[in-house]
Amino acid sequence: MGFDSFIGNTAAAQTVREMLRTDRLPGAMLFTGAEGVGKKTLALMLAQAAVCERFEDDFCGKCARCRRAAEMIAAAEEDLARRRDLKESARRVEGLVYFDLQLIAPITRYVLSEQIRVLRQVAYTRPFELPRRFFIIDQAQDIHWQAVDLLLKVMEEPPETTTFILVCPNAGELRSTIRSRCQRVAFSPVDEDLILRLLRERRNVPEPKQQLMARLSHGSVGRALGFDLPACLARRDVWLEFFHSLSGGIGPRARTPDWQQFFDSTRKLTGDRDGFDDVLTTGTELLRDMLLLLESGDSASVSHLDIVPRLKTWAAALGFQGILTLKEGLDEAHRLQIRNVNQQLGLDSLAIGLASAAHAGRSRTGGP
Ligand SMILES: [Zn+2]
Question: For residue 301, what are the β-bridge partners?
């Protein structure tokens, strides 16, 4: 229990504890940093510590207020999950009730106007059970644009007994008028050693896989704890088929690409609709690794550290231009996906273009 159980980002934890100790808790705060580095966790811990009966700058988890705070958090999480599951959109915001410690997060793709309207109603009333109100808005970058003005109005006339904590990856995604009213606490990726230790303690993963999992978590505790390694490796296998068949057709020792294997792999990649985001992430990671190996030969910092020799071979075959072209193709696919355009990787045409360009190059130089 208490801040001692918080993993990584000790500076951020020190900052909020100092605020509690000196009784200088701001009316509005902004927690920024990558996904899974502990922003929401620390926000909830801060709120709990601010109301704990026993400690000034920590929480015991046992006193009546700590227990009540924990119940409020659990109830809010449950309520959000239930609302997200509702089919009828009108019912998703029906009968919203806010506790003194309230977690607010997107119900649909957005935090909806009604959620902020209720927040505004409640923010100026005295807290019912706890000495202070806390509104923690997770994924604050997804507050619906129609609701942002409403939130801004509340923040312009800050209620005395309420603290807002906005949580989001990039401060740049928030409107500057909101940003400027918040005291910012920045979070960094968590050290790999710390994540490795956590994996050893909490996950039953065979030793050789631990290092890979820690690396692929990219400093995110949340990602490490929920990491589905078999699923990730299955996704990666399809990419490996893709690169294998593609790199056979280009580069100095080119042979005819195995088109059958090649089209099989692109079909599998584009066919994984539910996991398409993860497919793109894995592909981008692999290309980044190849660039790194080609540029510096530094295999210590690659993500997929268990397949370095293969990555080196493909990197040499594809060359800088080939890797960059593929990476641009994936970036474009990612942009299309965000805009909800039909998921089309266009990998086939991209790769055929690469293979034929390489073939033309060899013909010109009199190669085979
Ligand atoms: Zn307590």
Answer: none
Q: Identify the segments of the chain with pLDDT beneath 50.
A: 344, 362-368
| Alpha carbon of 70 to ligand 1 centroid (Å) | 10
Q: What is the DSSP-derived secondary structure letter of residue 171?
A: G
Both tokens of 97, joined, read: 């009730």
DSSP calls for 62-116:
-SHHHHHHHHHHHHHHHHHHHHHH-SSGGGGGTT----SEEEE--SSSSB-HHHH
**H or E element at residue 221:** helix 221-226
Measured between alpha carbons, how far is 159 from 161 in angstroms, rounded to an integer? 6
Ligand 1 centroid–CA 194 distance in Å is 27
Give me ligand 1 centre to Cα 188, in Å. 28
Q: Quote the ligand 1 centre to 325 CA distance (angstroms).
A: 56
Encode pLDDT of 82-97 as tens digits. Answer: 999 998 888 999 999 9
Name the amino acid, one letter, at 199: L
Cα(61) to centroid(ligand 1), Å: 5
Q: Report how far ligand 1's centroid is from the alpha carbon of 102 (Å).
A: 18
Cα 117 to its chain centre, rounded Å, is 27
Nearest in space to 167 (alpha carbons), one of 32, 27, 49: 32
Q: Take residue 243 and report the two structure tokens written for it.
A: 């690169």
How would you list the strands of the sheet with 162-168, edge to edge? 101-104, 133-138, 162-168, 28-32, 183-186
Predicted local distance difference test score (pLDDT) of residue 255: 66
In sequence order, the 6+-apart residues with CB closer than 8 A to the CB of 240 are 307, 310
pLDDT of residue 141: 96
Residue 80 CA to ligand 1 centre (angstroms): 25
CA of 25 to the centre of ligand 1 (A): 18
**Ion ligand 1: residues, Cβ under 5 Å:** 52, 54, 60, 63, 66
Q: Token pair for residue 292?
A: 């790194």
Contacts of 150 (CB under 8 A, 6+ apart): 113, 116, 117, 120
Across the chain, how many H-helices and E-strands are there? 14, 5
Give distance in angstroms: CA of 15 to centre of ligand 1.
20
